[in-house]
Amino acid sequence: MLAIYLTVASQGRNMEYKVIQSTHQEFLSLQQEAASASEWDHFKKNTHTKIDPIIKDLEATASSDFPHLQHLLWASRDYLYPMLDNAQTERSRDQIKFEKHLEAAEQIINQNWIVKLLRS
């Protein structure tokens, strides 16, 4: 019963993280495949469609009260688009920074989730 609860509860939490993280996974696949310029252009357009509204929401909600959102904002607003431009064939400084902020957000989310679980 607990496993079912955890699965259901985790589905709706941190949608921003899930979208940004799935975009990162798609980016890594394209990078590894040495995708063509047209594939990168298509990916960039789709990324703007998905991520721009998230950035706007994060700019309104991210703060020191919600550090995971702050890291997601920095990753998406400050490093995602430069990463798409300069890390298509190999890792760049922007990719490293993006991944550090994404990882920090994930750690905070997981830590918060464990604390909430232990309190219930």
From TrEMBL:
It comes from the Bacteria. This is Uncharacterized protein. It comes from Gimesia alba. The lineage of its organism: Bacteria, Pseudomonadati, Planctomycetota, Planctomycetia, Planctomycetales.
